[in-house]
Amino acid sequence: MEYNFPITRNESPKEKPAAGTSLGFGKYFTDHMFMMDYDEGQGWHDGRIIPYQNLSIDPAATSLHYGQMMFEGLKAYRNPQGKINLFRPDMNAKRLNRTNARMCIPPMDEDLFVAAVKAIVEIDQDWIPTEQGCSLYIRPFIISPEVSFSVLPAKKYWFIIVLSAVGAYYEGNESKLHGSHIWVEEEYIRAAVGGTGFAKCGGNYGCGMIAAAEAKKKGCEEVLWLDAKEHKYVEEVGTSNAFFKINGTIITSSLTGSILPGVTRDSCLQLLKKWGYNVEERRLGIAEVIEAAKNGTLEEAWATGTACVISPIGVLYYDGKQFPINDEVVGDVSQKLYDTLYGMQIGTVEPEMEGWVVTLD
Ligand SMILES: *Cc1c(COP(=O)(O)O)cnc(C)c1O
């Protein structure tokens, strides 16, 4: 289906950040945004591009109180031919609908989602940064402006997409991978089975901030979350999925319901299998990881996500001790995954998988 979204141009576009500016993550927003309404009986309607602006929302709107909301995250890059690359946006559309189903938010046609992403990126394409590691981050989200104190699914929603020129995820390392220091979190939990861990909804992140804040005080960049029930099994690293290479085998947590099914996670799994690595999706005990670190078989570990692409883990902090991985040197598999995925995304590496790179014409 062809979608046609009316455009209201921003008459006073902002100055773009000068080359070399440290872009950060969510500091520089573009001139336009995408907005679309949902009303019960009418479905999603009136998708449109408007100048980037504040929202006017009633203070009693349900999303502000009860957290019925969702978001997505993906990136656009400028390829060497000067065209715009997206990476597997259909996966974000599918995940949006899984999140929506869990959060009692109505579904959206996948094609409509992808068309909206393309339309807003196209109009603000001059904002795509071209420096190494930088990109245009795309943040689609849904909230409800409906006024009520009843804890009930709303009948009215807004779907909005905003864009931000961003640098690499880990500050001060905008172009080079490094091994991060990770706190194995044994007190707080992120998500329990039966809850919303697999969904990209705001509540999952608000509840995790305290652990990240405390980890930072202890000299770590992020936490390694363990399962909620037994605090025994590794789940994710901060807001990224986690991979461990032990004695030649690459292991990531299976999608138990409390794990966010990352697009980058899925892409790594498919690439690793294609390259012939022994890959396992299963529950992985923290005891097994630490034992491997002690006996020298923990060869590599890394986190995966759209924001960081690949973020190698240099040291695990556990039980009052520090366990360096691969002498804190970035491992071969981490580097190869980064080079391949990032290369595909920016268009300098031939896509190894059909349909992964979506180029706007
Ligand atoms: C978004 C997210 C990820 C990574 O997903 P990608 O699709 O690879 O960006 C991993 N874990 C959590 C908790 C997330 O929110």
User: Helix share of residues?
Assistant: 10-25%
Helix-strand makeup class: alpha+beta
Uncertain runs with pLDDT below 50, 5 residues or more? none
Could you give the count of β-strands? 18
- Ends distance: 17 Å
User: Roughly what is the average pLDDT, rounded to an integer?
Assistant: 96
Biggest beta-sheet profile: 9 strands, antiparallel
Overall geometry comes to: globular
How much of the sequence is in beta strands?
25-35%
Order of helix and strand elements from N to C terminus: EEEHEEEHHEEEHHEEEEHEHEEEHE
* Small molecules bound: pyridoxal-5'-phosphate
The count of helical stretches stands at 8
Radius of gyration: 21 Å
What would you note in describing this structure?
- By secondary structure, the protein is of the alpha+beta class.
- The protein has eight helices and 18 strands.
- The protein has helices at about 60-65, 90-100, 110-125, 205, 210-215, 265-275, 285-295, 330-345; strands at about 30, 30-40, 45-50, 70, 75-80, 85, 135-145, 155-165, 180-185, 220-225, 235, 240-245, 250, 280, 300-305, 310-320, 320-325, 355-360.
- Helix 2 crosses helix 3.
- The radius of gyration is 21 Å and the shape is globular.
- The two termini are about 15 Å apart.
- The mean pLDDT is about 95.
- The protein binds pyridoxal-5'-phosphate (PLP).
- Pyridoxal-5'-phosphate binds near residues 260 and 263.
